[in-house]
User: Fold these one by one.
Assistant:
Number 1:
Amino acid sequence: MDMSVAKKAAAIGLLTLSASSIFGAAAMASQPVSPRTTGPLAASTTGASFSGSYLFNAPGTNHGGFEFYGYLSDTSCSDGNNVKTEAAPEGYGFSSFYGTQCAKVHQDDYVYIGDQTYVSYAYWKVCRDRGTLYPDNCSATYRKNR
């Protein structure tokens, strides 16, 4: 009888050890998320420029998305082309956010991933939109991390 009690205690000890290992690993895998990360954001290319800031929203605010805000300018009004900014959350394609020809407009836009609590990083660039016949002129693509 003492032997079966010892076996049961050993089995319970192993189960406890396994459960704590599993749940401990899960707790370690979920890193704490920075509530808000901000910084300056500026870029230019032939015919377009942007000056402003970026923000990674806290989880639960704007889907934890990458937000950018500032002024987008058409710096070459005589070329007849529009201007835009493009942003892409981790693992997804670019979304375009258009300005106005021959004007300086305020932008406050964000991109996010619908099935995630927050975005870890995003790509961003400013472009002169040259229509369908010619390729756009774009600045370098910037990667911003949370």
Number 2:
Amino acid sequence: MGRRQSLVLVLGCAIALTAAAPVASAAAPHHASTRKLNATFARTLARQTARHFEVQNQVIVQVNFEGCERGSPDKIHCAFYGRGTTRLFSRVCDITVLVQGTGTEAIATLKRRCKAIPRLLTFARAMPLLEAAAEELAPTRDALSAIRRVNPLEIMATATWIVSGTTTEECTATLLARLNTRDIINVPSWLQPCTVGARAGAAAP
């Protein structure tokens, strides 16, 4: 009886070891595959987080994706650049979204560093548009005069020209170059009543 019990015990241990071995070898690769944060998932989550920031922010109206970089197996940093405009300021933001987790289970944290840049319409940008607007009113006009800054976003000028017919009239128009929130310059104009001069061909005194 003692020999039969020993044989049964040895066989039982061999069967137990044979059954346990495949379970251990299968678990190891599964653990390794889920430990590393999935890059595609992290990039998608980062884009969604940045998009949510863009929608919620009242000034930043455009957020551009600039790329992602893995910092460690469970951390990926994604960079974005945001911009927006108010009437007097341009606002730019360097945005970083940190995605941290394993596999396709992660959380995203957004950090931003923003600065406001005063907006200014320069004479170099305004003058060609003022000249073009005056040219449409009077191709034979005099040079623009009374050129002056109204405020950081507006520059004004006066166009003067002569209209000859049965009478000679001097006409003027006020032109205003205005920078809008989309960084586009508009140039409205206001015509002034023309001043009647001497009759054409009249003898000089």
